[in-house]
Write a structure and sequence with these properties.
45% of the residues lie in helices and 21% in strands. By secondary structure, it is of the alpha+beta class. Strands 2-1-4-3 form a 4-stranded antiparallel beta sheet.
Length: 130
Amino acid sequence: MTSEDALKALQAAQEEARAHQWAVSIAVCDDGGHLLGFVRMPGANIASATISQSKAATAAHMKRETKGIEEMINAGRFAFLSAPKLEGLLEGGIPVMMNGQCVGAVGVSGVKPGEDAQIAKAAVEAVVTS
């Protein structure tokens, strides 16, 4: 994932959020969970900044949507809460998959879980279709 990809993702995510008047934080990371780009939109909750970055890193490390992790924990697999270095265990983190490989991820926080994921998916789509 390049810095140009990160900028495309941030732009697409902001467009999706603005279209619905949602104030969110958006984080884009590489496949190792390292931050490549970040935006905290005006009015977004301060905590959403950290949460979005954690969701992105977790999606990249796990190579899967964080929604699945949240569902697993909610179904009773509480031991997963002790997994090291995984903090973004809430819906809203989406990996960027290209040619079957995870190249990065997008994490969004600030609105309802499904809405966070909707914004992140718009960001991922902008990267994988360009």
